[in-house]
Design brief:
376 residues; mainly beta; five-stranded mixed beta sheet; five-stranded antiparallel beta sheet; 30 strands; 2% helix; disordered N terminus
Length: 376
Amino acid sequence: MKLLILTSLWPSLILASTPLAGPQVSAQTVVPPQFKVVSLEPFGSDPVAASAVNNKGRVTGVTFREVGTQTRAFPFVWSPQGGFVEPWLPAGHTGASAEDINSHGDIVGFITHPSFGTRGYRWNANSFIPPQPQYFPELSGRLPLAIGDNRRTIAGQGFDAQSPAWVFDSVTGTVTDLIVGGQIVEGVNQATSVNAAGVVVGTISTKLSNGNVRPNAFRYAPGFAGWFIELLPGPTSTWYSSDAFDVTDSGEIVGSVFDPLDHSVAHWSVTGNFTDLGLASANEFVTIARAVNEDGWIVGWSPNDHPLGMDTPFLWIDGAFHDLNDLVVGLGPTPAEDAGVVLHARDVNDEGVILAELVHFSPAFRIEDVLLVPKG
């Protein structure tokens, strides 16, 4: 196992020499599109928890089914053409996840089995040859969260708060633990997104001079002397914490930042410069960005900012936040249930397709995973 310790001044040299820059905003305001709803789970189906959508509109996640007296999670891939497909899993497994899918249909997650414990896997959903995921012994006790379009870079977190975030090269079989300052600081340590170049972003806990622990957004990227962890900057306030959740192939990063005044959307440019994009609503103090596409569309939600006391999902385009409930058409009542309300926006692909959740109140309260597809 390779251990990475941050000792280079490369990130600070880049930040010091680059002027502050935020997302590009056009001279004229962009009118957001209208969206139609594509359901991933017809009413009455097994519960679905979708986690990611790729650029071909394929979705991965897990379905939950009763096995004996237990509820277990089963990975799936969904497409408009083929519906649900599940990988072959060894008999006796006690649970599994599917966290991310790249443009090639490679899915990563973990499986737990009495014979080998918890182990990370990669499953190419385009083919059933071989008809099962590829399990990596190097990822025992590790939880994959993301895979890049280069098909070899997998990243994730450990099994507990004392474990570091990590990056795995599936070609060389090398695991790199992401550590700052020579020690693992207990807290949030996770790598959440990988782009086509293998650049990884996420959150890593660091210890401040006063002894406090700060979750800090990071980028793991190549420099002039190899690959390095860069702690991404934040507000000018005395104390803040930050998280990075997604990175585009061009290198733009989004996440969230918290300081004593607000918890708002964070953007980091290709050169690492920080911009606070603000809050989705003037009525709230928290807005969380979860994903960004190559056109600069950002999606996420603002907790408890809805007339019914629920979270409000947003789409950020060209400097403006839009409530997704104002942009979705076709939510009119159906014979089986009510129209529903969009709750969370979890992912967005480069075609503008958004992975989201609807909340239904009739005939019974339930949450439905859907795709919001731009009309036209």
